[in-house]
Specification:
This protein has about 280 residues and is α+β, with helices and mostly antiparallel strands. It folds into 2 domains: about 1-115 and about 220-280, no CATH class; about 120-200, no CATH class. The chain is built from 11 helices and 10 strands. The radius of gyration is 23 Å and the shape is elongated.
Length: about 280
């Protein structure tokens, strides 16, 4: 967080489990930063980099966030920047249908209540293949996802194993320590389920039914991709405004971006009026 941030601009939000976090709302310069990463950085990494600009503690604090906390912060930021209502379009996954489904959501629909009991560590004890396994784990962080993403892009199963290895703190088989890579698939699946339960905000599954064909399905809501797409669209419009004002008034990009959006819009109207009068002559 910038040292010269005005403390009056900071907002305090409550995360699942009741933890309080203070951060700076998104500004035009932050949107421009996000737009600069479009097309060359995965959405998850872009979202974490954005939070690194807004959180006290910077990039290290953003990477250390449990995935659910990161998702909650993105939703809170979305509400601050664009409001509570969210209009989405999904497609029925049935090969014989493919109907476009319009869905009206709110940020409040997607946020896990702060009162929900959240514990980002846990233990799984399970019998499998004639042995007893006991595994202690922690919930994945934003940094874990980013570091495992390149491998997952090439091999989804290998990426999942790498993520599991980062999050397993200790694994035992019949009381003897073993490496996470030696855990059988049944145990790994149980750990994955326990991780999901320990961090309920991490994955948002929407239960849907297609009105056209009646098929019931669930769809993962990707907060980062949805929010970043909105920010990219808005930042693109802002850059057009910067271009128009810089061309007309010869102001710098920094000066224009520091201008309140309402005043910038008023100057844009003045430029359009001036150009209209010029064409009319």
């Amino acid at each position: 967080m910038s040292r010269d941030s005005d403390v009056r601009d900071l907002v305090r939000v409550v995360l699942p489990g009741g933890r309080h976090v203070t951060l700076r709302p998104i500004g035009d310069e932050d949107e421009a930063f996000v737009l600069d990463t479009a097309g060359r950085t995965p959405p998850s990494a872009r979202a974490t980099a954005l939070l690194g600009r807004l959180l006290d503690g910077g990039a290290a604090a953003a990477r250390a966030l449990p995935v659910g906390d990161r998702e909650a912060l993105l939703l809170h930021l979305r509400r601050i920047r664009f409001g509570d209502s969210m209009d989405c379009v999904l497609r029925c996954p049935s090969p014989s249908c493919g109907e476009a489904l319009e869905l009206a959501l709110t940020v409040g629909d997607l946020l896990v209540p702060p009162s929900v009991d959240v514990c980002h560590t846990g233990v799984v004890a399970i019998d499998a293949y004639g042995a007893h396994y006991a595994v202690s784990f922690r919930a994945p962080t934003a940094g874990d996802l980013e570091d495992a993403a390149p491998l997952a892009a090439a091999d989804a199963e290998a990426g999942a194993r790498a993520l599991l290895a980062r999050c397993v703190q200790r694994a035992e088989r019949n009381g003897a320590a073993i490496d996470a890579a030696a855990l059988p698939s049944e145990v790994s699946a149980a750990i994955g389920d326990a991780m999901a339960s320990s961090d309920p905000q991490a994955e948002l599954q929407l239960a849907m039914q297609c009105p056209a064909c009646g098929a019931a399905f669930s769809s993962l809501f990707d907060t980062a991709s949805f929010f970043l797409r909105e920010l990219d669209e808005r930042a693109t419009r802002t850059l057009r405004e910067v271009h128009t004002l810089a061309e007309h008034y010869h102001w710098s990009e920094s000066d224009i971006l520091q201008m309140p959006p309402q005043r910038r819009a008023q100057y844009i109207d003045l430029v359009r009026d001036a150009r209209a009068r010029g064409r009319a002559r």
